[in-house]
Automatic annotation (TrEMBL):
Pfam families reported in the protein's UniProt record: DUF1659
Protein name according to UniProt: DUF1659 domain-containing protein
Domain DUF1659: 5-65
Species whose genome carries this gene: Lactobacillus kullabergensis
Length: 72
């Protein structure tokens, strides 16, 4: 049995002293294409950070996968 991919999103953490006490702000972008590469997701995060005047601290791929039940 294999998992069934239900949904993918990416969470970016931006760094800037203007954000809260720890200087970070996270944003989650939904509906990431199944074939998206780590390099392309990193480029998007870097572009968003540059537009906001921030540094990119981290990028995390989040997946929700269904578990088949029964004999499949």
């Amino acid at each position: 049995m294999n998992f069934a991919l239900l949904e993918q999103s990416v969470q970016y953490t931006f760094l800037n002293s203007k954000y809260s006490k720890d200087g970070t702000k996270s944003r989650i972008l939904k509906n990431v294409r199944e074939g998206a590469t780590a390099g392309n997701l990193a480029k998007v995060g870097a572009a968003l950070a540059q537009l906001q005047g921030d540094d990119l601290g981290a990028a995390t791929l989040i997946q929700r996968q269904g578990i088949p039940i029964g004999d499949e």
